[in-house]
Write a sequence for this structure.
C-alpha cells in the first residue's frame, strides 16, 4: 500500500515534483508561441510576406506601448480578484489557453493562402501583421503570462522552492525552444537553385503556418497539464489593503523601488542579447553559412549549454547568491561573443561550438531570473507594506516584452542598415558578401554589449544580493506567522 499524502495546515499537498513539472509545462506552453515569434516571425514577414525588416521591427516596438497599458491592467486584475477554489492565478490558464494559441496561429495563417496574399497591397500586409501581433502579444499572451508568472510566489514561500520553480520554468522554455529550434528549420525551408546555379535555403510559408498550428495544439496540452499539476498553497495576505492602492501609487512605488527598476533593466539587456541571437539565427545559418539546418544543430547545442547551466545553477546560487553568480556568467558570455567576432570562424561547427559557450553563460541567469523577481516581490512588500504579486510581475513582464521589442526592432533596423534584400528569394539571388558580413557582426557584437551591461547592472545596481535576500525572507516569515 502506498503511504497516505500528508497535507499541510491549509489542506494542501506539500510542495513537490508535481508543482515543479506543472510550472515547467506552463512555460513550455508559453514558449510554444513566444519562442516561435522570436525565431521565425521576422523571417516569415520579410521573406514570405515581403515586408521590410525595418517595418517589422518597428511594429514589434510600437506594440510595446500597448503592453504598457495591458500588462499593468492584467496585473491589477490579478491582484484585485478574489481567490477561487483552485487558486487566484491558476484559473487564467484555462480561461486564456485557447485565445492565446489561436491568436498565435493567425500571425502565420497567410502562409496557407499565398495566392490570395499575393494580391494584397503592401499596406494590407503591414496592417495584418500589426493587428495579429498586437492581438497575440498585447492581449492574449498578457492574459495568460501575467497570472502564470505571478503564481510562483503563491505556490511556495520557501526560497529554495522558488529557485526550483525558476529552474523548471526555464527548462520548460528550453524544451519548447528545442522543439521549435530543431524541428522548424528542418521542415520550414526548401532548397532552391538560383539562375547562377547556387543553391539557397528558402523559407516555405505554408510549412511555417502548419508548424504554427501544430505548436498551438501542443501549447494547449501543456497549459492543461500545468493547471492539473500546480497547487497554490501560500495564504493570500492583504487583499483589502491592495484594493486601496491606486495605480498611481503603485507606479510611484515602482519608480522608487531600486530592486525592481534594476531587475527591469537587467531583463531588457538579457532579452536584447538572447533574442538577438535567436532572431539572427534565422539569417546567419541560411544566409551567412548557407545551411539552414545549422539552426537546428545550434538549438541542440543551446540545449546542452543550458542543461549544464541548469545543473550548476542551484548549488552555485545557494552558496554564492543568485545575482552574484548570474553577473559572473553574463560577463563570461560577453567575452565569448567578442572572441567569436575576432575569430570569425569560417566553419559553421566552430561557430556553433562558441555559441554553445554563450548559452552556457546566459543559462545561469536564465535559470534564476524568475526567482530573482520573487525576491523583488518580497522586497516590495517590506518596503511598501503591501504585497502586489500581480502588479510587480506585470511591470517585469512589460520590461521583458520591451526587451523583446528592442531586440526585434534593433535586428530589423540593423538588417535594413546593412542592406538586407527581403526580395532576394523572389529575385533568385543570394545576399551580397557585405550583407553577409553585416549579419555576422550583428549576431556577435550586439549580444556582447548586452551581456556586458547586464553583468554590470547585477553587480553595481541591483541591491538584492545573498545576504539581503536571506534577511528579507526571515523578516517576512516572522511577519506572516504573527
Amino acid at each position: 500500500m502506498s503511504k497516505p499524502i500528508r497535507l499541510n495546515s491549509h489542506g494542501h499537498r506539500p510542495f513537490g515534483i508535481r508543482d515543479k513539472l506543472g510550472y515547467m509545462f506552463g512555460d513550455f506552453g508559453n514558449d510554444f508561441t513566444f519562442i516561435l515569434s522570436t525565431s521565425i516571425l521576422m523571417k516569415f514577414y520579410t521573406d514570405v510576406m515581403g515586408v521590410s525588416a525595418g517595418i517589422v521591427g518597428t511594429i514589434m516596438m510600437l506594440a510595446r506601448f500597448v503592453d504598457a497599458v495591458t500588462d499593468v491592467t492584467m496585473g491589477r486584475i490579478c491582484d484585485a480578484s478574489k481567490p477561487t477554489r483552485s487558486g487566484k492565478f491558476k484559473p487564467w490558464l484555462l480561461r486564456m489557453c485557447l485565445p492565446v494559441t489561436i491568436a498565435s496561429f493567425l500571425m502565420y495563417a497567410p502562409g496557407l493562402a499565398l495566392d490570395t496574399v499575393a494580391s494584397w497591397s503592401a499596406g494590407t500586409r503591414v496592417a495584418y501583421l500589426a493587428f495579429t501581433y498586437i492581438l497575440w502579444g498585447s492581449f492574449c499572451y498578457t492574459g495568460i503570462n501575467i497570472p502564470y508568472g505571478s503564481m510562483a510566489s503563491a505556490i511556495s514561500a520557501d526560497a529554495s522552492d522558488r529557485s526550483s520553480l525558476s529552474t523548471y520554468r526555464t527548462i520548460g522554455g528550453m524544451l519548447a525552444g528545442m522543439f521549435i529550434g530543431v524541428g522548424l528549420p528542418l521542415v520550414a525551408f526548401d532548397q532552391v537553385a538560383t539562375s547562377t546555379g547556387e543553391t539557397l535555403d528558402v523559407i516555405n510559408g505554408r510549412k511555417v503556418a502548419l508548424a504554427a498550428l501544430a505548436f498551438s495544439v501542443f501549447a494547449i496540452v501543456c497549459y492543461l497539464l500545468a493547471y492539473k499539476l500546480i497547487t497554490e498553497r501560500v495564504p493570500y495576505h492583504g487583499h483589502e489593503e491592495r484594493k486601496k492602492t491606486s495605480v498611481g501609487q503603485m507606479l510611484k512605488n515602482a519608480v522608487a523601488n531600486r530592486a525592481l527598476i534594476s531587475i527591469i533593466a537587467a531583463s531588457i539587456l538579457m532579452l536584447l542579447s538572447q533574442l538577438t541571437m535567436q532572431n539572427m539565427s534565422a539569417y546567419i545559418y541560411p544566409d551567412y553559412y548557407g545551411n539552414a539546418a545549422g539552426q537546428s544543430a545550434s538549438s541542440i547545442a543551446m540545449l546542452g549549454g543550458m542543461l549544464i547551466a541548469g545543473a550548476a545553477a542551484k548549488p552555485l546560487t545557494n552558496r554564492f547568491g543568485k545575482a552574484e553568480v548570474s553577473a559572473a556568467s553574463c560577463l563570461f558570455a560577453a567575452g565569448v561573443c567578442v572572441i567569436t567576432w575576432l575569430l570569425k570562424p569560417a566553419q559553421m561547427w566552430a561557430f556553433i561550438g562558441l555559441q554553445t559557450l554563450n548559452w552556457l553563460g546566459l543559462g545561469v541567469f536564465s535559470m534564476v531570473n524568475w526567482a530573482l523577481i520573487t525576491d523583488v516581490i518580497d522586497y516590495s512588500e517590506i518596503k511598501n507594506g503591501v504585497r502586489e504579486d500581480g502588479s510587480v510581475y506585470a511591470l517585469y513582464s512589460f520590461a521583458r516584452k520591451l526587451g523583446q521589442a528592442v531586440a526585434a526592432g534593433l535586428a530589423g533596423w540593423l538588417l535594413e542598415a546593412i542592406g538586407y534584400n527581403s526580395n532576394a528569394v523572389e529575385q533568385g539571388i543570394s545576399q551580397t558578401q557585405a550583407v553577409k558580413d553585416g549579419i555576422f557582426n550583428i549576431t556577435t557584437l550586439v549580444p556582447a554589449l548586452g551581456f556586458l551591461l547586464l553583468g554590470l547592472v547585477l553587480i553595481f545596481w541591483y541591491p538584492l544580493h545573498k545576504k539581503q535576500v536571506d534577511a528579507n525572507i526571515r523578516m517576512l516569515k516572522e511577519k506572516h506567522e504573527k
Q: What stands out?
A: The radius of gyration is 22 Å.
